[in-house]
Structure formats: C-alpha cells, structure tokens
C-alpha cells in the first residue's frame, strides 16, 4: 500500500499554509480598511471623522503627498491661526483644499481666513469664508492614500479588488465543492479555513451592501500649490506737460483799424500750471488769414507781454499768442484776433457850391500847384473866388474806413505852402465832425453854410481835414495841416455905407433967427455881445462853459472838439443838441464829460488839449451869431 | 448543505461587490475622474530679459515710465516660467499691483492704464489674448487673470506690458509720480 503523500503534513507545507493564512487575512484587512476609508463620508461616523487622500504636496512636510488626512468637522470659532483646515476652494467648489490658516481677518464685518500652504512661497490668493470650511486637520497617515487612489485606475482596481476577489471566489468554489463531497460522503469534517471563508463572506456582504447603497466616492484633498513672482520698482511718472493758461489778447482790439505806426501788441502775463516750471515765455504769430496758414512772422521766446512789430503793409491781419513754460509746454493759443492796417490817409476836398449845388473840390492830391479850379457848377464861385453873404461850402472826404472830418476857416496870414497853425484857426467857429461806424462810407460829404457876414472881409483859406478810423489824417509830414484840402476865398461883404454929411443949403434969413434950443442927442447903448467862458475841470475830465448876453437868441447849440493822448492823432468831438435858451441872459453847461461811449462801455479821454468850443446862437430877435472859445 | 449555500451566497456577493464597485468607481458621473499625486513644489519665476529667471526681479529701465502725458503710450515685455518641481503641474496665472513706495495717488492711478498681452512663440502679440487695459487702481484692487492657457510645467511665456494715458486726461496728473510699484504674479496650481 502506498501512502499518499501530502504536502500539508510536511514542515514546508505547514509553513506555506501559515504564510497563506497571513496573506489571506492581510488582503482581507486591507480591503476592509480601504473600504472603510473611502466610505467614511457616508458612514455614521462622518460627523466625527472624515478622511481625505492628500494628492499634492504644498503642505509638506507636515502632510505628505499620498497621505490619508483625518479631518474633524469644526466651527469657525474654534479655528485659530496656525491650524490646518480643509475648505472648498473659492476658485472651484469641487476642489477641497488643505492649507494652514495664515491670518484671520475681519472684512466687512465678516471673518475670513487667509491661508497658505507650508510649502508655498506665497499666501493663497483668496479669502476663505466660514461657509467654505469643511473641517480641521487632525492627523495623517502617509502613503496609504496611494493604494486608495489606485482603486480609480483599472489596474489598481484589478490588483486591489479584482485579484483578491478572484481568490475569494476560488475559495468559495472550493467550499461548495467540499460541501457537495461532504453531502455525498455523509461525513462531517470541520475545516477552520472554510469557517474563515464564511467570515470573509459575511464581511464582504456588508461591504457589498454598503457599496451598493452609496455612490462610491473617493474623497481627495489638495494641498494646493502657489508661487509668486515679483516685479519690483516700476515707476510711473507724469511729466509737467501742462502749459500755462492761454494769454488774453489786450491790444490791438479785435477788428480794430490802425496805422502800422500805432501797432503795439499786448497780452496778459501768465504763469506756469501750478507754478511748476516758470518763467513763462510767449510766442506771437502774425498771419494774413483766420486759420493762420499764411504766416507773416513769428516771434518766439518773448519775455515780456509787449511787442512792437516792424512796419506792416496795409491789409487784414490775424494774430495769436501762446504761452510756454520753461519746459516748452505751450498753451494752445490765445484765440486769433483780427486787426486791419490802414496806412492811407483819407482824401479830403472842399469846394464852394451855389445854393447847395456841388462846387469845385480841391483835394490834397493836387496840392500845392496847380490847384484845380474847375467848378462843377459853372455858376459856383471857386478857388480865389470872392464871396459874400451866406455860401454853401461843400466838404467831403474819402477813405475806406472814415471816422471824421473837420472844416475850418483859416485866416489869410497863413503861409500857403506850410500852413503852420494859423492865428485865424477856426475863424468863425466852423468845425464839424462826422463819424462812420462801419467804415464803409465813401465820399461822405456835407454842406456847410458859411455866413461870411460874421467874418471880417479879407482873404481866407477854407480847409477840410479828415481822419480815418486808423487815425490816418488827410495830412502828411510834421505839419498836421500841410496837406489838408483847401481853397482860398476872399470875403468881401459890402461895408455899411458911411454917412455923407449933407450940406444944408444956404438960406437968407429974413427974420432974425430965433435961437433954437439945441437938443442933446440920445446916447445909443452899446449892444450886449455874447461872451463865452470856457473852463476845463481840475481833473481834466470835463469842461464847462457859460455864455452871457443870449437873451436875444431863441436857441443855442454847442460843439466841442479836442485832442487827447488816449487816442493820439484822432480829434474828438462833442456835439450838443440844440436847446432853447428860454430867454435867459446866460446859456450855461457844466461838467460835460470828455469821453466816448459805445455798447462796450465808455473810454475817458486823458490829457485833453486844443479844446475848441463853438456855440451857435440861433436867431431870435436878432441875427444868428456864433461865439467860440479855446483852451490850448 | 450549509457550505454549499454559504459558498453560493458568498460567490454571488463577491461578484456583486466587485461589479458594483467597478460600476461606482468608473461609471458614476459623481466620481472623480482620477487621482494623481503631486509631490514637490510650485515655483513661478519672472525674467525681464528672457534669460535670467528668479522669483523677484527689479524692473528694468523700460518699466520706468517717465515723462508720461495725456496720449502717452509705452511698452515692455517680461517672461514668466513655471519652474515647479512637480511634474505636469500647470499654473494658472494672475497679476496684481501689490503696492508702491509712494502709494497710489488716485489722480494718477485712475488715469494710467495697463494691459498685459500674451506674445506667441514668434514674438508677435496675440491680440485676443489680453487682459485689456485697466487702470492701475483696478490692478491694485483686484488680481487680474493673465491671458493665455495655464502655464505648463517647465514652460516659459512672454508677455507684453502696454501702458497708456488717454489723451483726454486733464492737467491734474502733471508732475505726479508713482515709484516702487510692486507687481506680484501668482501661479496657482491647477489640478492635478
């Protein structure tokens, strides 16, 4: 009989049996542990302890990558700085983060946590709110997260669950086979190994039920990595790019007409923006078009606010000024302003008409000789004419921009060629002015009624001078009267006849004559002659006058002309309305201001001189009379 | 008979357990798609010349924006590198104006605009890949996501900084300065 050999009965067999048992139980325990770990969030113990697989290493060395972290639920109040907590990522709620509390801050009355990984060089770039906190780290077991994570891979699942399960299936099949044999042999034989298989089966049943009842979750926690890179020292500097304010143009005034000799540019002084880079200099641009595309000249770097340019030809000009700081920041510009250079004086003429008709005009262009002497109206007396009584004097002046013209009667003791200021200046008080506001008046003329009876017989010059808006006068040279238009006339009114004594015829008295008492002749009272007094106020801003002996006149009208340094070269005039004298013996006007007014305001005239007062007294009971008075 | 029943029952349960677990682990939509472990450290480095990288760099002269004025614009470039020791770790990038030595006077910070544009491998701007112009105040208030996809492990990316001041800005900013501006670029690990 051959005895059947059994390995179980040998020492090697017994050793292998023990090893097998150990492996069998180790696998079994491992499966149980992994199962409990991954199912911990679903177990009743989840309120006491939750496990996470740590997938990253930003919390190393405290928590190793691949460790299982054991976390207990916690409230915000129980968290202090330095604690390690788990929380839902503020960036992605699907991620759970395991980081250390770096700082606890209160923001908008709410407590938020600033976290940081121990292995990160920078705090997390978020703030953790209380509702995102899921627990507080308690302890960890390194490395065992790896097999748990392997469950998610096919090979890991096959190795950890599949192979042990096949092994268990083999054991179950073996157990069934043995049970069939035992039923056949009717022999009962207790095998402890089968009992252990049954125990395993029971445990696996429990696991299976739990697995089947839950959605198998594998909780992973990240100890998220952060890293900062810093760029330091960048600078942003805004330079002084702000220019000074735009200057305001002062003179010449907008659309003003002026002679080039009177052209002086002036503007307001400015300082740099916030006084950053003074001093301010100015650039003046002179153009011949509104948009300054045609530049005549540019003056740069002006340190004052005045500029006298070289003489300019006639024409329309525009100018503008910019202010620049020391860095060259220049204002846009002052705005462009127009002015007109008018260097041409008006052409004046004077002639004698007949009953208002036009007469010969002698203008300065013909001076000195020959003086044209061709009457328009053949019947009209002209140059070198002898006139009497009241004659119409036709005066006219021509200019693009006329302002005024004056008519004067000058005495004969004037040198015809030089016309120095005559002693007979304004003889008869004929001084008239006319102003043309729009500068469009040409050949503006008027008729002056010259009553030669008010002037002593003699030779006179009738002179008209005109001034345009630019201040050009119908004269040239140093003598302001040299080229005024003029004609010479002789006033030859008939003198009052001298009484010729009548010789009484001689009679032979037959009777001795009776002595006739001689009656003394009645003395004729001397006539009261209107005599003006003309005074300038002490501040030279107004004048006053008074004329006595006017009771015989019904009305009076005055005219005052004068020069002023405010508007040099431009005679000024004041014409009063005709007023009734009311039978008073004295006609008086006081405090007549020396100024001109317009819509833009009044301009007071300074330093008045050559003031001429002319008062025409209209007839009342006697002949019209004119009185004059001068203030040098 | 008990062994037969227990064996059949155990066999059934094991098969059911394995099948159920496999289903739960691989097919359930609620399950994480995978777990990888990232050991090591993240490291975002910056360079102002594309050569020398470090965690901190001093702004080059080109980032000293001097003599700015309304209508001003200037540009410069910098590089960021994912120098992490964690293989396959991607970093999402943000930038923030953290502080300035002089503080940030709002008059100036509200009017200086800055954008970061991604530059492709050929050195050309990618116009669509930009933060858009935002004022320094905004850069100081909120970290701005840098353009481009997450920065791969070991990768380097060049950015262009465009700075401008609108021409409509008034004189208020004249003479003002912000010095010592500190820009912090943060790389945040993207899962894994």
Please give a structural write-up.
The complex is a heterodimer of chains A (632) and B (192). Chain A has 632 residues and is α+β, with helices and mostly antiparallel strands. Chain A has helices spanning 11-39, 145-150, 154-185, 192-213; strands at residues 50-54, 68-72, 84-88, 96-107, 110-116, 128-129, 133-141, 220-221, 226-238, 249-251, 256-258, 265-267, 281-287, 295-302, 306-307, 315-324, 337-341, 347-352, 362-363, 385-387, 390-398, 402-411, 444-451, 458-468, 485-491, 531-536, 542-548, 555-563, 572-575, 579-580, 586-593, 595-598, 601-604, 609-618, 625-631. Chain A has four domains: 11-211, Umud Fragment, subunit A; 249-341, Immunoglobulin-like, CATH 2.60.40; 347-491, Immunoglobulin-like; 531-631, Immunoglobulin-like, CATH 2.60.40. Chain A has an eight-stranded mixed β-sheet. In chain A, strands 11-17-16-13-14 form a five-stranded mixed β-sheet, with no helix packed on it. In chain A, strands 28, 29, 30, 34 and 35 form a five-stranded antiparallel β-sheet that branches. The termini of chain A are far apart. Mean pLDDT of chain A is 72; it is low at 190-195, 208-218, 354-381, 412-444, 476-483 and 498-525. Chain B has two domains: 1-35; 44-190. In chain B, strands 1, 4, 6, 7, 8 and 10 form a six-stranded antiparallel β-sheet that branches. Chain B has a three-stranded antiparallel β-sheet with strand order 9-5-11. The longest helix of chain B is centred in the N-terminal third of the chain and has 25 residues, at 2-26. Chains A and B meet through helix 2, helix 3, helix 4 and strand 9 of A and helix 1, strand 1, strand 2, strand 3 and strand 5 of B. Strand 9 of chain A pairs antiparallel with strand 11 of chain B.
Briefly, what is this?
Chain A is of the alpha+beta class. In chain A, 14% of the residues lie in helices and 34% in strands. The termini of chain A are far apart.
Distance between the termini of chain A: 177 Å
Please give the radius of gyration of chain B in angstroms. Answer: 26 Å
Most extensive interface, chain pair and sizes: A-B, 79 and 89 residues
- Helix-strand pattern of chain B: HEEEEEHEEEHEEE
Number of helices of chain A: 4
Helix content of chain B: 10-25%
């Amino acid at each position: 009989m051959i005895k059947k050999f059994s390995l179980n009965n040998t020492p090697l067999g017994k050793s292998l049996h023990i090893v097998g048992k150990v492996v069998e139980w180790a696998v079994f325990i491992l499966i149980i542990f992994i199962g409990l770990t991954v199912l911990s969030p679903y177990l009743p113990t989840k309120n006491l302890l939750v496990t996470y697989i740590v997938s990253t290493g930003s919390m190393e060395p405290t928590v190793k990558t691949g460790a299982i972290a054991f976390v207990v639920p916690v409230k915000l109040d129980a968290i202090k700085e330095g604690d390690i907590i788990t929380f839902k990522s503020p960036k992605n709620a699907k991620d759970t983060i395991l980081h250390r509390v770096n700082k606890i801050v209160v923001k908008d009355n709410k407590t938020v946590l600033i976290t940081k990984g121990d292995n990160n060089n920078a705090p997390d770039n978020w703030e953790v709110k209380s509702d995102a906190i899921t627990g507080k780290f308690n302890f960890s077991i390194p490395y065992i997260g790896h097999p748990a994570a392997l469950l998610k891979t096919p090979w890991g699942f096959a190795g950890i669950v599949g192979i042990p399960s096949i092994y268990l299936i083999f054991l179950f099949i073996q157990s069934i086979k043995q049970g069939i044999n035992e039923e056949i042999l009717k022999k009962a034989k207790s095998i402890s190994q089968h009992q252990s298989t049954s125990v395993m089966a029971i445990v696996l049943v429990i696991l299976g039920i739990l697995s089947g009842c839950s959605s198998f979750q594998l909780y992973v926690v990240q100890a998220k990595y952060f890293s900062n890179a810093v760029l330091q020292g960048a600078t942003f500097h805004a330079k002084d790019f702000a220019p000074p304010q735009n200057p305001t143009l002062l003179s010449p005034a907008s659309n003003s007409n002026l002679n080039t000799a009177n052209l002086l540019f002036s503007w307001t002084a400015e300082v740099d923006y916030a006084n950053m880079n003074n001093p301010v200099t100015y650039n003046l641009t002179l153009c011949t078009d509104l948009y300054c595309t045609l530049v005549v000249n540019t003056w740069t770097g002006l340190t004052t606010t005045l500029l006298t340019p070289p003489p300019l030809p006639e024409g329309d000009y525009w100018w503008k000024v910019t202010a620049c700081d020391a860095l060259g920041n220049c204002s846009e510009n002052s705005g462009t302003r127009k002015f007109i250079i008018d260097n041409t004086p008006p052409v004046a003429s004077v002639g004698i008409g007949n009953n208002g008709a036009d007469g010969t005009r002698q203008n300065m262009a013909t001076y000195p000789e020959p003086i044209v002497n061709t009457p328009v109206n053949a019947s009209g007396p002209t140059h070198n004419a002898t006139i009497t009584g009241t004659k119409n004097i036709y005066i006219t002046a021509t200019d693009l921009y006329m302002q005024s013209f004056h008519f004067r009667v000058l005495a004969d003791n004037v040198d015809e060629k030089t016309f120095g200021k005559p002693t007979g200046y304004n003889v008869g008080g004929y001084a008239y002015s006319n102003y043309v506001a729009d500068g469009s008046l040409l050949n503006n003329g008027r008729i002056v009624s010259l009553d030669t009876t008010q002037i002593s017989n003699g030779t006179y010059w009738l002179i008209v001078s005109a001034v345009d808006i630019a201040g050009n006068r119908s004269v040239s040279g140093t003598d302001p009267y040299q080229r005024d238009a003029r004609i010479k006339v002789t006033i030859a009114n008939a003198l009052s006849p001298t009484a010729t004594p009548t010789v009484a015829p001689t009679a032979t008295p037959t009777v001795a004559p009776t002595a006739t008492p001689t009656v003394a002749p009645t003395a004729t009272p001397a006539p009261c002659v209107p005599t003006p007094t003309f005074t300038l106020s002490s501040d030279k801003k107004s004048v006053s006058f008074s004329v006595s002996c006017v009771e015989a006149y019904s009305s009076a009208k005055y005219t005052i002309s004068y020069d002023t340094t405010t508007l040099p070269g431009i005679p000024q005039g004041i014409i009063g309305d005709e007023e009734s004298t009311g039978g008073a013996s004295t006609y008086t006007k006081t405090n007549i201001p020396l100024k001109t007014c317009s819509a833009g305001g009044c301009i007071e005239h300074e330093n008045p001189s050559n003031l001429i007062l002319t008062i025409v007294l209209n007839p009342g009971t006697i002949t019209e009379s004119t009185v004059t008075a001068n203030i040098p | 008979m008990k062994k037969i029943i227990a064996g059949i029952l155990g066999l059934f349960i094991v098969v059911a357990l394995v099948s159920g677990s496999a289903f739960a682990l691989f097919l359930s939509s609620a399950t994480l798609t995978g777990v990888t472990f990232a050991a090591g450290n993240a490291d975002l480095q910056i360079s102002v010349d594309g050569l020398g990288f470090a965690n901190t760099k001093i702004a080059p002269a080109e980032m000293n924006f001097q003599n700015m004025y309304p209508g001003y614009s200037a540009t410069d470039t910098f590089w960021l590198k994912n120098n992490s020791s964690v293989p396959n770790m991607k970093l999402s990038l943000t930038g923030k104006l953290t502080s300035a030595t002089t503080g940030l006077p709002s008059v100036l910070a509200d009017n200086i605009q800055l954008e970061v544009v991604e530059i492709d491998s050929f050195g050309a701007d990618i116009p669509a890949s930009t933060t858009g112009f935002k004022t320094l105040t905004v850069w100081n208030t909120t970290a701005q996501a840098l353009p481009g996809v997450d920065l791969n492990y070991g990768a380097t990316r060049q950015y262009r900084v465009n700075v401008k001041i609108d021409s409509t800005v008034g004189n208020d900013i004249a003479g003002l300065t912000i010095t010592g501006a500190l820009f912090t670029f943060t790389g945040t690990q993207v899962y894994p």
